[in-house]
Amino acid sequence: MTYELFIGDRSFSSWSLRGWLMFEHFGLPVKTHLLDLYGGAFARDLAPLAPARLVPVMRTPDGDVVGETLAMAETLAERHPNAGMWPEDRSARATARWLTSEMHAGFGALRSACPMQLLHQYQGFEVSSAVQADLDRIAELFQHAKAKRTVEGPWLFGTYSIADAFYAPVAARIAGYRLSVPAPVSAYVETTLSDPAFRRWRALGLTKSYDPVPYAMDLPTADWPGPAPLPARAIPRGTPINTACPYSGDPVTDLAEIDGEIIGFCNPTCRDKTVNDAEAWPAAMALLRP
Question: What InterPro entries would the database entry show (predicted)?
Answer without folding.
Answer: Glutathione-S-Trfase_C_sf, Glutathione_S-Trfase_N, Thioredoxin-like_sf
